Amino acid sequence: xxxxxxxxxxxxxxxxxxxxxxxxxxxxxxxxxxxxxxxxxxxxxxxxxxxxxxxxxxxxxxxxxxxxxxxxxxxxxxxxxxxxxxxxxxxxxxxxxxxxxxxxxxxxxxxxxxxxxxxxxxxxxxxxxxxxxxxxxxxxxxxxxxxxxxxxxxxxxxxxxxxxxxxxxxxxxx
Length: 174
Hints:
Layout: H1 15-25, H2 27-106, E1 111-118, E2 122-129, H3 132-145, E3 148-158, E4 163-172
Antiparallel strand pairs: 1-2, 2-4, 3-4
């Protein structure tokens, strides 16, 4: 058996000795860990930079797509507006057509139509009737059917051949 006996009293370590001991034993680990963190951040920065570049490329592609599609969208809007205008015109024409067809379907054979003027929703007709009863029956039929909100005789004159009249029909109800 062997014993080691230290007869010298243990010396108190100075602050400089403690700092040296710490720096020699633990500071190298801290430096290595710090370097690993810096390297990881460095590689993460490369990854983030690549994502930023990819996003910029994506934004540029989308800008180009928008620039290409924008004239097409504008043309589609113009076509849509034109089609709405065409639809309005077709509705007006259909209303006018039904108004004229109705008038011609009930117009008496013995009455002669001499003038026919039309506006948006009204008609002005001039004609000649041989018999006042036919003209009166035509007027009564118009009032009974109630297709026009206002039916008005502007003038009626008796001539040698019959009666000359001017009639205004407004606001067709179709």
